[in-house]
Amino acid sequence: MRLLITRPKNAAVAITAALSARGHIPLIAPVMEIKTRDGKPLILEGVQAILATSANGVRALSQRSNNHNLPLYAVGPQTEEAARKSGFHFVHSANGDAEALAEKVISELDPANGAVFHASGAETSGYLGEALRAQNFLVKKEILYDALPVTKLSDAAENALGENILDGVLLFSPRTAKIFSKLILTAFLKEKCARLQAFCISAATADEVISLEFTNVAVASNPDHQGMLALFPKENG
What we know:
Blueprint: E1 2-5, H1 9-21, E2 25-28, E3 32-36, E4 47-52, H2 55-62, E5 72-74, H3 77-85, E6 91-93, H4 98-108, E7 115-121, H5 127-133, E8 139-149, H6 155-162, E9 168-171, H7 174-186, E10 197-200, H8 203-207, E11 216-219, H9 225-229
Parallel strand pairs: 1-2, 1-9, 4-5, 4-7, 5-6, 7-8, 9-10, 10-11
Antiparallel strand pairs: 3-8
């Protein structure tokens, strides 16, 4: 299958490699650009653990702090990998979404042992902090990066859609899906979606592209990298 990958470039590397290994042909066309925020070095005194809900948060955190000795709780495997590559020594993965991460932190950490620090993006959901504060955790949060929507699809993506050579598109968040939908409508390419499949990381993501009327919408059984990859069988030959 020829597949459009809408993730930012750094985040798209792993899924692109895995799909290629299965015989598919990915085309990376990010609908968001990641911009790290400048700032003073982070003060992590009194923090018992760092929480990361994205690999982008880990990379941005490493630019503002060289403290890699604190335990880092990652939302899933890609964020875990980014943390290890950034030099963190004690990394724990929730292998899921923000809800799974909250459950892991609550089960393994004690609020009495200090605050937790959330390395966040500007558009990150507030669920994690709310869930932890409800269990008496002190949550410190710093917005370290912005995920900015692009103003148009890449020329390569528009051409591939226009020439009907794509079979599907991968969408990894409700916000990504919302931006993608807007870009498609702006480029007058809605009719091209009628022959495509949409592969969505969650039901909430799928809801954002209903108006595009894809021929089929598949939702991952688990909201993570492996859940998305499971939607794609190995191509014959």
